[in-house]
Specification:
Blueprint (H helix, E strand, L loop, with lengths): L6 H8 L3 H9 L3 H9 L9 H7 L5 E9 L3 E3 L1 E2 L6 E2 L2 H14 L9 E6 L2 E6 L1 H10 L3 E8 L2 H11 L3
Parallel strand pairs: 2-6, 3-4, 5-7
Antiparallel strand pairs: 1-7, 5-6
Helix pairs in contact: 2-3, 5-6
Length: 162
């Protein structure tokens, strides 16, 4: 009889936790990790269209890096200002279920964010972000992509205080 693994254990086993992302980044392959992750089906969903879209143009990457939750702009949520609005009761239910299951930020895949117009827009991981906010966490790990080398260089200097 086998024990049922938690989501965090599954993520670790499949190589999509923070430690795995850091290893890929240290090898200069964070973009490869991102595409593997987006096609993995972790958490019951897969996003090959997002992966395909990212590959349509040259991207520059940073991360994983730890950032304040307050520095992130969610794309999804119940706030009418969000790019993709979810009904409030549904949003509370899904972020609540996820919050109940989260115990270790290091066991999670980093959020995937786009640097756009000076903001860090969460493109993958909005539910995780909502759960982290519910838990009162103040920071999380992200992988950031940039659509221009200029944005990459300017934000990298700011991000790493250079």
């Amino acid at each position: 009889m086998s024990e049922e693994m938690t989501t965090e254990e599954t993520i670790r086993q499949l190589g999509f936790d923070l430690s795995a992302a850091q290893k890929w980044a240290n090898g200069g392959k964070i973009e490869v990790w991102v595409h593997r992750y987006l096609r993995s089906g972790i958490g019951g969903s897969t996003n090959p269209q997002f992966s395909d879209g990212l590959q349509l143009a040259r991207r520059w990457w940073n991360g994983p890096v730890e950032v304040a939750l307050a520095d992130l702009t969610p794309a999804v949520g119940s706030d009418p200002a969000r790019e993709y609005v979810v009904e409030a009761d549904h949003w509370q239910a899904i972020t609540g279920r996820m919050a109940a299951a989260l115990t270790d930020v290091q066991a999670l895949p980093p959020l995937i964010v786009e640097y756009r117009a000076g903001e860090l827009s969460v493109r993958d991981g909005n539910t995780r972000l909502g759960a982290m906010e519910r838990l009162g966490w103040t920071t999380c790990w992200v992988v950031i992509w940039y659509n221009s080398e200029e944005d990459y260089l300017q934000h990298s200097a700011k991000l790493f205080n250079q």
